[in-house]
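Box 3.1 A note on notation
Throughout this textbook, protein chains are presented in two layers. The first layer is the amino acid sequence; the second is a token string describing backbone geometry. Keep the layers aligned when reading.
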Amino acid sequence: MENEKFFVTRDINLASTLLTLGFPLIGIDFQIEGERLRPVGYFKFKETADVLKAERLYSQKGLSVEPREFSENLRYLKSEVNNPKKNPYSEMSK
């Protein structure tokens, strides 16, 4: 796993799209950013030619996904980023 490459994005809509397309989420790295010091998730996927192609098509507005599944995945990712027990910067995770 040392030589394995990862595709990482902080774009939650892209991450939700990748999940909806069937790419498994490897993990979420957290950082505190912005003026209000809010948690930001960096979503990690295994880097493959298909993931890179999907990211390119996403950028070119060339993808279609099932909207209900996309919305469910988006809610899931938001809850993961905002979950105080998983976020390493939260007092509840200590």
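The radius of gyration is 14 Å. The chain has one domain: 6-93.
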